[in-house]
Amino acid sequence: MAGKFIPDSDSGFARMARVFSDNIALEPERYFLTAEDARDIGYAVSEFRHHLALASWPSTRSASRIAEKDAARQRAERIVRKYGAMIRANPQINRSAKVCVGVRERPGRLHRRECPRSAPHLRYLGSETGVHFIEFREEWGARSRAKPHGASRLELFVEMVEPGRAIPAGPGARPWYLRSFTSSPMRVQFPMPEGPRMIVYWGRWADATGEVGPWSRRVVARVEGWGAEDAGGEGEARRAA
Fold it and tell me: Residue 225, by phi and psi: left (phi above 0), alpha (psi -120 to 50) or beta?
């Protein structure tokens, strides 16, 4: 079975769990399990599949049926994970037997993932008082991930530019580090300038060891720091920037 051991979807888990249960029931001793273990697995999987069917049929679907299905899935998933981990860790069970129940052997040697050498993609989404919302992704596209493999976080840097001055394409020699984020979109509490300033951001991937990747393109948020007496000139200054 390709992909995750426990699929995210209910239908995918129902298929996977049935294969897992049926193969163990045929030869429990092949997996160093007892007939009682096989019955426990089979009961939990059958119960989930029963509740899934009731929660899926239009004639029986209801909020209570869905809640029962979710509870049954938790029970089935718990027992499948438990025995799946036991099978995976047992070196006396050969690879072909593990494949039959969807269990993949642990790799002989784990290699450290290197920090991505690609730059993140950032997009300004909007703001509220004292906060900017910025999205980051590996690349733009419906199937792209927020973080690529090897990246544990995004480091965000900021610069404040006076209205009317040219906005730099990249961060300076000593960029102002704001903080790191692990999920997108980011809720960024930016430093409030003493006077009107355009807030500009750059980001880069970082891994768990501290290695970092290349800079993203700049993301221009908006002019912040207007006093009450300056509010009327905000639009003109932003156009000049």
Answer: left
108: in domain: no
Under a CB-based contact definition with an 8 Å cutoff, are residues 221 and 190 in contact?
Answer: yes
Q: Give SS3 for 156.
A: strand
Residue 170, domain CATH: 2.60.40.10
120-172 pLDDT, tens digit per residue, is: 999 999 999 889 999 999 988 767 788 998 999 999 999 999 988 999 989 88
From 42, 66, 100, give the residue that closes a domain.
100
Taking the complete model, does pTM exceed 0.85, yes or no?
A: no
**Residues contacting 47, CB < 8 A, separation 6+:** 72, 75, 76
Task: Looking at the structure, tell me whether residues 125 and 231 fall in a common domain.
Answer: yes
- Name which of 88-92, 196-200, 222-226, 236-240 the model is least confident about: 236-240
Beta strand pairing call for 153-161 and 121-128: unpaired
Say if 113 falls within a structural domain: no
Q: Closest Cα partner for 31 from 129, 106, 107, 101? A: 101
Q: Does residue 110 fall inside a structural domain?
A: no
Query: What is the extent of the structural domain holding 45?
Result: 10-100
Q: Which residue has the tokens 């001055």?
A: 165
Residue-level pLDDT at 182: 94
d(CA 123, CA 143): 17
